[in-house]
Specification:
single chain; 12 helices; binds 5-(aminomethyl)-2-methylpyrimidin-4-amine; Heme Oxygenase, Chain A; 232 residues; 78% helix; mainly alpha
Length: 232
Amino acid sequence: MKFSDELIAGINKTWRANHSHPFVQGIGHGTLEPGKFKYYLIQDYLYLIQYAKVYALGIQKASDLSTMTELSNSVNYILAGEMALHRQYAERFGVTAQDFEEAIEAPTTIAYTRYMLAEAQNGSLAHVIAAVLPCAISYAEIGAELAAIPGSLEHPLYGDWIRTYSSDDFAKSVQATVDLMDRLAIDLQGVERDKLKEIFLTTTRFEYLFWDMGNDVVDWPQNLLDAVTETV
Ligand SMILES: Cc1ncc(CN)c(N)n1
């Protein structure tokens, strides 16, 4: 069994919980409240900025030019490809990409992204890839599953999102990361593999928290947001 398959098989219940999350199903069936989607997109834009930096740390830790090039392609795909989707939605919601970029990061966004950055900064390239892998694979799987729901691809608001995450471009970018994980794992022993499994489980759990955040619009308490002008 490939190491990437072993990672998912070892945490199957947690893994599937993301697919059946009400927020995800709401996108697929077109029943999600647009306001929740907008809040999620803003936080996801901020998330992707940090996520691109995690991949960039991988470039620094890579030991060959071909891996560096692959990771650099991933950084470019996130910043220019995936985030273009969010910029297009910003326009549809009547705000600018800069409004998205200048939004306040919610506690979940900070916790998830800074966890990945800490593991990436302190660990090896394998740690970097284990941290980003649930994000990559789960969106590709979710995109494909939602695309199979009749009419989902034509939904006026959610169709673009589903088309992006079920696209060949996204799948190609994810496959490069999966293949890299499998190559890196070949040389690793038990304890090192266990650490990768722990990181993979943690970021899979964070994926669930991120869907929860969107579904419940979880932000800092309003009184703290109102007091923001006191500190900036
Ligand atoms: C939280 C999250 N996880 C994963 C993806 C897919 N890159 C995303 N856009 N946002």
